[in-house]
Amino acid sequence: MQNEKVQWELKRRFAAPLPEFYRRRIVFWKDEDREFEKDVDELNLEGVKIIKLTGTNNFAVKKLLLHDDLESDYLVYCPITYTSDEDNWLQDIEYYSEPFRADFISMQMDELNIAPSAAMRKTVKLYAKFFDSKERIQKLRRIGRDYQTPLQLHIDIMAVLAGLSEGSAQDVIIAVLAAGLDKETNSVLQNIRKFGSIEAFWQLARKYTGYIEEEDKPLGCFAAHVLLTALSQTMNASVLKGLERFVSETNKAYCYSIVHEWRSREDNEDLYELCRTVENELQLPARFDKFEPETLITGDVFPCINESILKQLFAEISDHVVKVDLIRKVCENRRTAGWYKRFSDYFDCLFFIGKMQTFYQEHGGGFHIVEPKKIWKLYTSDLYRMDAYYRHFHYAFGNSLKNANDILEDGLKHSTEFVEALYQNWFLRELTACWTNAAADDLATLGYISEIEKQRDFYKRYVAPASSKNTRAFVIISDALRYEVASELSEHIVRTTKGSAELESMQAVFPSITKFGMAALLPGKSISVNDSMDVLVDGNPTRSTVERNTILNATPKASVAIQYNDLLNMKKDERRELVAGKDVIYIYHNSIDAIGDKAPTESKVFDACETAIQEISGIRPVGMAWPGGDTEFNRQNIKVILEKTDVRFARCTTPTYAFTLPENFMRWRPSCSISDGNVLELAEQFLHADCTEDMLFYVWGHGYELDLFGTWDRFEQLVSKMAEAAGRGEIVPVTNAEFYQLFKNDIPSLAE
Question: N or C end of the chain, less CB within 10 A?
Fold first, then answer.
């Protein structure tokens, strides 16, 4: 025989178990080229009868198979080509028999689960050069698809040629665009041209993106088409007037999905550079600059949209025009837009400028309170917010300078002048004047403000009672920790521990510098100063930790004082031994004052405040939400986060519309958002599901969306449904952190 594999394959076919309800096997061997006509006579198939069709025996064969012999297995060799189905008297038998071809293409089709149709044979022939390589065939086999249509085969072959492990039209298009805009050096496009079908690729592009390829068109035109069509899905049509040639109205959603998928991948730098190239070629920045931020706010895809919005708003702020409602809307909307992460520091600056301006609008008349106690109460309940906004602004501003954007840097710096004027020339001046006038009499006659708790009473007021209830009192003293930072710390503790925290204030001793303040927090009856200006408590020095420890142990309470860094460097057993039998533990923390007290590092004091909050709470965040939803993260980012932080889960925004547990904690997709119109329907499905294993209905959202989209009623219905089910014990409500604790050993944090 020409090919022993043919005999082996036929034996395998006839030896295989019969399909259900079948009594025998009939195999039709198609060989229109009569390549194996002579070899048929040499076949040795035990228990199988062989028939050769001649064109004149068709009726006899049909009578044999349908009437005379209904039990025997048959191999029907057919070298005949029929011009029409009417000429094929055996077509009905072919329908319930098994097809077989012995040529290379047919066997290749059978091996790769390619449907034995004329259209599929034609497609395989088209890729003859591709199938010359066992390596390429193996890669195609690994995709593991059953091919029923030429389109499926086209896509997967191009996926292999693009170096992809799985295939989709979207993946192929991304791979081509990522390989560069020069047709001659684009390795993916050249591979498709050499081993595949470049015509098939452009047909694919036309089908899914609407792009019509012309020989003389540069590849940049295709890139511009995909990106601008994607942009048209989210951008006001007026902005793109004159660019209609790049937009396919019927393919907006698909092109947008290409960009969204690409942006969410591990490496989206190619997309970023592609966007930059296209926006420069088409002069999009100049175009966008002509439109108000309100018009651009929904636009996605191009980085320069963010720059245009920010640049315009910073310019207005520099002119003392601060549109707080617009700023709030912009910051909220752009948070989930493309490339937000690259501009997040600038948007944070903008956000806190809006907060400061809102504060000014609320208190623009100044502060005219004459009673110091009332001013104190107003600050600790409200006015401290301005200090917090100012700090957060400078924290974001400092971060923006670390990787400055040339287009935005000057505009932000000019806006900083407005911030400083608002904070120093208005807030500090007005509040200081008000406080000075109100407190002058008490300070002059008493040396302190009456009716306000004094720092000197700290130990007696808080420490002694706390350690007298069979409890151990830990006192963390963080130098230069302002009230507004303490407020944020308090909120952080409550939020991350689900515990409770109380925030109170006391007036500092005068002068309010470190050595006096540290002494005032110790037990003792008197504070004095010697000739060397050393601060003494009951005559004892207070400069060092050892000296403060001596004063603490002069009380009936078993006490110890230690520096935060020394405690941090101790082993667990050493820490346990340190506090054993102690009633009071003083821990001195000095990250803020150590930075702010020195001119070279003074500018880093805002960073130090953030560090202090984390250090004092002793709690590192274990979870987060990805900036921009799930548009910009990759394995390298995840690796760094897992190595450098305690974060172990991260929420995305792309919905699953399912109740399955997450496959990976760092790519944790929710069921849907609170703003999704399907949320109540999904809730019903969840509550009435036949639960045989763990299920999770995960709803995410922002409070502002309830107002923005008018969905309070829907939210209340959802909460009511879930509360009732929880009350019946049917479900268990959990937070992200609680769910993570429950399943952290079962679900990985990093996908391999």
Answer: C
Length of the chain (residues) = 752
The CA distance from 361 to 376, in Å, is 21
Q: Are strands 527-529 and 535-537 parallel, antiparallel or unpaired?
A: antiparallel
- 424: three-class secondary structure by DSSP: helix
Tokens of 270: 């190619």
> What are the tens digits of pLDDT across the range 99-147?
887 766 776 777 777 787 888 888 888 888 888 888 888 888 888 788 8
What is the maximum alpha-carbon separation in the chain? 129
Cα angle: 326, vertex 328, 334; to 5 degrees: 95
SS (H, E, C) 182-209: CCCCCHHHHHHHHHCCHHHHHHHHHHHH
Q: Dihedrals φ, ψ of 724, to 5°?
A: -65, -45
| Dihedral over alpha carbons 171, 174, 178, 179 (to 10 degrees) | 70
At 253, is the secondary structure helix, strand, or coil?
A: helix
Query: What pLDDT does 638 receive?
Result: 82
Q: Is the peptide bond before 511 cis (omega within 30 degrees of 0)?
A: yes
Vertex 362 angle, CA 495 and 493, to 5°: 10
Contact present, 150 and 220 (Cβ < 8 Å): no
Contacts of residue 43, defined as CB under 8 A and 6 or more positions apart, other chains included, come to 1, 7, 10, 50, 75
Alpha-carbon gap, residue 233 to 231, rounded angstroms: 5
Model pTM? 0.71
- Of 455, 513, 435, the residue nearest 480 (C-alpha): 513
Question: Environment class of residue 35 by beta-carbon count within 10 Å: exposed (0-12), middle (13-18) or buried (19+)?
Answer: middle
Q: How far is CA 21 from CA 2, 25, 71, 72, 647, in A?
A: 35, 11, 13, 15, 58
CA distances from 599 to 419, 513, 596, 602 (A): 22, 17, 7, 5
For residues 335 and 628, the answer to whether their CB atoms sit within 8 Å is yes
The SS3 assignment for 259 reads helix
Give the separation between CA 80 and CA 101, rounded to whole angstroms.
13
Is the model's pLDDT at 629 over the cut of 90? Answer: no
Burial 273-311 (b: 16+ CB within 10 A, else e): ebbeebbeebebbebbeebebeebbebbbbbbbbbbbbb
Pairwise pLDDT comparison (607 vs 174), residue with the higher score: 174
In the structure encoding, which two tokens stand for residue 347, read together? 């948007």
The domain limits of the chain are 1-102, 284-441, 455-617, 623-743
CATH code for the domain defined by 1-102: 3.40.50
Handedness of CA 322, 326, 329, 331 (dihedral sign): negative
Distance CA 164, CA 166 (A): 6
Cβ distance 542 to 519 under 8 Å?
yes
What 193-200 contacts at long range (C-beta under 8 Å, 24+ apart), as own/partner pairs, is 194/129, 195/127, 195/129, 195/130, 195/133, 195/136, 195/161, 196/127, 196/130, 196/157, 196/158, 196/161, 197/126, 197/127, 197/154, 200/126, 200/154, 200/158
* Rounded Cα–Cα distance for residues 644 and 395 (Å): 20
DSSP state of 381: I
Residue 446, pLDDT above cutoff 80 = yes
Spatial separation of the C-alpha atoms in residues 692 and 490, rounded to whole Å: 42
Average pLDDT, the chain: 89
Quick check: 328 and 379 in contact, CB under 8 A?
no
User: Are 508 and 517 a contacting pair, CB within 8 Å?
Assistant: yes
pLDDT at 619 over 60: no
